Amino acid sequence: MLRAVLLGPPGAGKGTQAVRLVEKYEIPHISTGDIFRKNIKEGTELGKKAQEYMNAGALVPDELVVDLVKDRLQQDDCKNGFLLDGFPRTIFQAEKLDEFLSESNLKMDIVINLKVEKEALIKRLTGRRVCKDCGASYHIVNIPPKKEGVCDICGGELIQRKDDNIETVENRINVYEEQTAPLIGYYKEAGSLVDFDGEASLDEVFDAIVQAIGEQE
After folding, report:
1. Residue 4: what are its φ and ψ, rounded to 5°?
2. Binding site membership for ATP: which residues?
3. Can you list the alpha helix ranges (DSSP code H) found in 43-164?
């Protein structure tokens, strides 16, 4: 049983920790992107509304995002908890989530905040390389290919994605910090936020999170 929110800037290692947490606690990993895609694909009323905004190149309004998430949290696989990733993004969304949990006589167990210095994030993100043929991922420092610029699997050329260049990476980090700083304050005040050193090894971060979850119970 675990109800948790996962916060952290791009490149902090959220994806890796999410996979391990949902496996350990047998809960669904819920991201707003997945919810949008599922509702749009199934042609639900909420999905149709979201599609209209996306087609117009507009951000999906907070109220609609909240409705989509609430709908998802009421499904059977969330009875034993969930791990929210990419939601909430704003104070409004966080307040609405708290209201929903309170009405259901539930509470958030922990808000996991992965902290990584900006310089380390830039190094991580700009070092990513992808095979343009088979899509395999590498990192020039952490997971280098056997031969520079060449995919180990298919021999294809390794490229840097456009969103991994330094200007885009810095912008993504700045946007995250601006959006999320108030949210971190909100959860800190509520007493549910726990900071973790995202620059430690993956195993160390995971063990620290599991220990913190045990202490919250």
Report:
1. -145, 155
2. 11-16, 128, 137-138, 200
3. 45-55, 62-73, 91-103, 118-126
Query: Cα–Cα distance between 206 and 114 in angstroms, integer?
Result: 11
Q: What is the CA radius of gyration of the chain?
A: 19
Q: What is d(CA 40, CA 125) in angstroms, rounded to the nearest whole number?
A: 30
Confidence of residue 217 (pLDDT cuts 50, 70, 90): low
Rounded CA-CA distance 205/208 in Å is 5
Preceding omega of 182 cis (within 30 degrees of 0) = no
pLDDT band at residue 126, thresholds of 50, 70 and 90? very high
| Digit-coded pLDDT (tens) for 82-114 | 999 989 999 999 999 999 999 999 999 999 999
Residues that constitute the known binding site for AMP: 32, 37, 58-60, 86-89, 93, 161, 172
Measured N-to-C along each axis, helices 166-190 and 91-103 cross at an angle, to the nearest 10 degrees, of: 40
Domains for the chain: give ranges and CATH numbers.
2-27+80-117+168-216 (3.40.50.300)
Question: Which residues does the annotation mark as catalytic?
Answer: 14, 89, 128, 161, 172
Q: What is the pLDDT of residues 16-39, one digit of tens each?
A: 899 999 999 999 999 988 899 999
Q: Give the amino acid at 167.
A: E
